[in-house]
Amino acid sequence: MSGKLKKLMNEVHVVTFERMYEEFVQEYIKNEESKNFVEYFVKSYGGRKQNWAYCYRVGCEINTNMKLERWHRELKYEEGGGKALRRLDKSLSLVLKTISKKLMGRMITMERGKLTAKISTIRMRHETSCKEMQAYTAEEVQPTKWIVYKTLANGINTYEVNKVKDCDCSIRCHTCQICIHSFTCNCVDYAVRFTICKHIHYVCQKFPIMVANVSDENVLLVDEDSNRLRREKEKEAILKEKEKSVVHEEPTELIYEQVERNIQLLNNLKIWQMQNKLNELIKV
To answer: How confident is the model at residue 226 (pLDDT cuts 50, 70, 90)?
Structure first.
């Protein structure tokens, strides 16, 4: 049952998913051992398939809050020393200083380069396509469309790979000379996780000349200097933002001194008024 549930969740076609869902319910609701589970499954998850079925979440990617938690930890422990900040001005100053460090780190990353998790995953998929794709077969249907399939004992697994466009983004496989937006595939790895899957790598390796010579009206011409120009513009924007986010402590302290002086003046005024009232009472 667990295998069929996982296969049901991983299905990326809505029509096929609905058919598999009905077959799953009808098959296991007749069994006394699994009847209670199927009733619970239909009651709890049957009415909200959009929240767990991959076919309703194609292109949404798998998102987590790990980056948000990492940012919170950096603010609280690395920059704030683990202390609870009660003053709003100090909290804002801490956030602005941390953002300034982040911007400088971004500039360093652009110059030095960084192996991100997305690029590492793409390289792993490329290695997988070189080692484990011998059992697959690819056929060209159209100049921009290929079918990758694998024959199994109980059927055939078929995947459709389409050529979309070329762009100059940095999320790419340098061996295959493609970026993450160049091809699409209907497998779970691309449709949900949004990475260059092993089927796309396999097509690029088997049809290298055809893939390179594909021409389409929507294809973008890649300029060699576009990456450099984009980095320069981003650096300029970062420097401008950094100048805006510079925090000056002296004006804040001056404001507090002015507030204290105003409070002292108010206290003196109240004391003077009370003394006048006392003098009037004494005269009476």
So the answer is: low
Tokens of 123: 């390289």
* Cβ neighbour number for residue 257 with a 10 Å cutoff: 10
> CA–CA separation, 102 vs 96, rounded Å?
10
Q: Does the pLDDT value for residue 61 go beyond 70?
A: no
Percent of the chain residues topping a pLDDT of 90: 0
Alpha-carbon torsion, ordered 47, 33, 28, 187, to 10 deg = 70
pTM for the complete prediction? 0.59
Could you tell me the sign of the dihedral formed by the alpha carbons of 275, 276, 277, 283, in that order? Answer: positive
Closest of 95, 187, 68, 83 to residue 136, by C-alpha: 187
Beta bridge partners of 142: 145
d(CA 24, CA 39): 12
Name residue, tokens 């799953």.
Answer: 24
